[in-house]
Amino acid sequence: MKYSIIIPVYNRPDEVQELLDSLTRQTYKNFEVIIVEDGSTNKCDEAVAQFVGILDIHYHFKKNEGQGFARNYGYAHAVGDYFIVFDSDCLIPEKYLEIVHHRLSENFLDAFGGPDKAADSFTNVQKAISYSMTSPMSTGGIRGNKKRLGGTFHPRSFNMGISREVYEKTKGYILPRMGEDIEFSIRIIKNGFTTGLIPEAHVYHKRRTNFKQFYKQLHFFGRARININRYHKGQIKLVHLFPAIFTLAALLLPIMPFINLNLSLLQVSGFALYSLIVFSDAATKEQNTVVAAFSVVAVWTQLLAYGIGFITEAFMIRPKIKPKQ
Q1: What is the per-residue pLDDT across 104-120, written as a single tens digit (0 to 9) for each?
Q2: How many CA atoms lie within 13 A of 195 on its CB side?
Q3: Distance CA 53, CA 118 (A)
Q4: Torsion angle (degrees, nearest 10) of CA 58, 64, 66, 67
Q5: What single-letter DSSP state applies at residue 139?
Q6: Average pLDDT of 255-276?
Q7: The CATH number fitting domain 3-126+144-207, selected from 3.30.230.10, 1.20.1050.10, 3.90.550.10, 2.40.10.240
Q8: Is the pLDDT of residue 140 over 70?
Q9: How many CB atoms lie within 10 A of CB 151?
């Protein structure tokens, strides 16, 4: 089976070069790589040119419309039997395609997702952010589970594969951004296709390199959850409300002593205990107390950013984006 690896990119030539370098070491060789430059001003064409003749690689430049439509562009130009999408800030382990091919050959999935991990080369902050986004101590724990809370596994586009049949029936993404991958997964499942997690098919996902960038990303994710619910009702579960509840409780901290001192002390104790649990869990998993300390900051950043985005978007009145086929 031939795989088409599709990578949308926007102003990230250095990361694309690292990603492509990791793909040269794949043990399974029957694949092509499609780079879709989504209107970047800092293009990656020179980085891509270094791998011509080493990889079966194809470079496309299009106007900026968002990563969802960039992926659609890649799907439309793919010749493979199965399409795999990576974010441009991922590094791919050498046995990734071999693992995926073995799994699909034994028990085929119309669409799959894989988890993400932190590489040893990542900074302490990147490792902390990775912990926050993958740990059950935050809402990140639901991303790498075989089943999401309340139903079937929903692949995410940082590490996701679909069969050609899925693309031909669904026509890909109908949203350019803001929850586009979750919306796509919902339609894949509604169309009767099988989905599942391949736990061993992980990628090393750099995500954001500092907490300011991480905050902006998670604020957008919080808004995206509300946006998805506009297209598919019932997509807000208790786990998605937790960051909003956490945020409201944190915002009440300064005034709580004036309302009820005992309740204020209980609230502070609860936050302190939660932070201690996060620190202890991260220290155990990462074997690094510096990463553990940064992990507490990362978890707080994740929950507050997501919660604020979720709350503010919930009060916005927006027309639905007209789907682009």
Answers
A1: 999 999 999 999 888 88
A2: 27
A3: 30
A4: 10
A5: G
A6: 92
A7: 3.90.550.10
A8: no
A9: 10
